[in-house]
Amino acid sequence: MMCYGSERHNKCLKLLPDPGVSVLKLIASEFIGTFIMIFGAAATPIVDAKYPNAETLIGKAASAGTAVAVVILSTGHISGAHLNPAMTIALSLFRHFPFVYVPLYIAAQVLGSICASFALKFIFHPFHNGGITVPTISTTRAFFLEFLITFNLLFVITSLAFDLKANRKLAGIAIGGTVFLNILIAGPSSGGSMNPVRTLGPAIANGNYERIWIYFVAPVTGAIAGTGAYDFIKLQ
Question: How far apart are the first and last CA of the chain?
Answer without folding.
Answer: 15
